[in-house]
Amino acid sequence: MRISINQECCTGCGVCVSYCPDAFRFDRKGKVVVRYWDVPVNIEQDCKEASEICPGEAIDIVLLS
User: Fold this and answer.
1) CA angle in degrees (0–180, nearest 5) for 36-53-44
2) Which residues contact 34 (CB under 8 A, 6 or more apart)?
3) CA 14 to chain CA mean position, Å
4) Which residues contact 11 (CB under 8 A, 6 or more apart)?
5) Closest to 51 in 3D by CA, of 60, 42, 40
6) Nearest-angstrom CA–CA distance, 63 and 13
7) What confidence tens digit (pLDDT) does each residue in 7-53 have?
8) Is the pLDDT of residue 54 over 90?
9) Which neighbouring-strand residues pair with 34?
10) Burial class (CB in 10 A: 0-12, 13-18, 19+), 33
11) What are the DSSP calls for 1-65, one per residue?
């Protein structure tokens, strides 16, 4: 699984950072960024749930086969 943040849609509210700090963080400019290009298996479910609750629908997930 890979995740990315669409900065144009991101509201910067930090719900994803609060929900899954292992995958998301704020950068020095206050923008949300991802910690991993390839998400560790043990946090995939948290990333999916963070994507579902994101108010800006800014989290893009690509499932790898």
Assistant:
1) 35
2) 3, 4, 5, 23, 24
3) 10
4) 55, 56, 58
5) 60
6) 25
7) 999 999 999 999 999 999 999 988 899 998 899 999 999 999 999 99
8) yes
9) 24
10) middle
11) -EEEE-TTT-----HHHHH-TTTEEE-TTS-EEES-SBPPGGGHHHHHHHHHH-TT--EEEE---
- Phi, psi values for residue 4, rounded to 5°: -150, 160
User: Count of alpha carbons within 13 Å of 41, Cβ hemisphere only?
Assistant: 1
Among candidate residues 17, 51, 23, 26, the one with its CA nearest the CA of residue 37:
23
